[in-house]
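Entry 14. Ran structure prediction on the chain below.
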Amino acid sequence: MDISNRGVDDEAKLADRNYTRWDAQGVEKIAENEEEDIKAVADMINAIQKAQFNNHRHCFSGTHARTQGIIKGKLVVHDDLPKHLKQSMFDHGAEYPVVCRYSSEPGDPGLDDRIPQPRGFAMKVFNVDGDFLPGGVDIPTQDIEFNSTPALDLADAKTTRDIIDLRIKYGNNQPELYNHLEARPDTDLQKFRDTVRNTHLESTRQYSQTAFRFGDYVAKYCLVPNSATQKKLYEETVKPDADPSDILSRWLQNFHRDHDAEYLLQFQLLENLDDQPVEYAGKVWDPEKYPWQTVATLVVPKQDSFDWEMKNFWEDHIRVDPWHGLKTLQPLGGPNRLRKVVYPASSALRRKMNARAEVNVKSMAEVPGPIPPALNNFLVVN
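Output, structure tokens:
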């Protein structure tokens, strides 16, 4: 559920709800042995990267290794938001340049698109003003990342350590992997990734999965395809016996070449910690109880979504990290504390093995590849 088409009365009711402050007692609670678990996960992700290096003679990210497309656009913050949504960088109407990457979630860059798996979407938002987290003080960007499943199977540090260990041991033997997963209490959560709808990426809803500070409050966020064409294409799914192994990137190229895209950026605010856990990301916050509320629109003009120069630059030099951003959008909960350690470790190994420096781009102009003509006038004043 979202409120993008709701009336004034519904919006007023949402404005009057009792949203939980980000600094309220119990929002975050560090689990026993979490630091040890996180260190083990960082080591295992590096081991996956080294294994993929042996296959490809190039080191990729430990997750979201397969680039499906990269696009440029603008994030338009609505100027008529109610007070409870005027938070952080969304406290006033504004337009921000963005560069975004579509991906497949696993750590194998050669993964066949015909295999159903979660897909990702990452966004670098430029020209952001405010007080930044320590990891992004010198980088005036807000990094935002998404996944196509609303719940995160790597729900906390301990679960992540256990599941990554199983995938390393039995990833090439699904029956044996499933024997171990079916012995767990979260079997359905862990197996769901293999049954996701395999459809057009530009038509797929994306989720933060984990919780973040949202100014005064706590929220999860999602990205909703909003054009008629995007919604229509969601009806089509990959045909394993007929489509090529790179069908998802081909579909993206065809779509972005001929169509503008539009996504709604929505937030779902925390109201009940018992029903909306922050430390455990394996539970979906029920949208019927806690509605999605639109704060901004991502606008993407027609362009080539698979520019080789841009793809290679992103994979070799860029890191998207939710800890690169504003203090008022700080990542919360165990899975995000894990990312704070694992992401830099994964990036450092990539740079070392590929002899490529990490580049913290500060504007769209610093990202190679063409800029869509429809953005030229916008960038002159931004």
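Strands lie at 66-77, 94-104, 119-126, 141-147, 206-207, 212-214, 217-225, 261-269, 293-300. Will compare against last week's run tomorrow.
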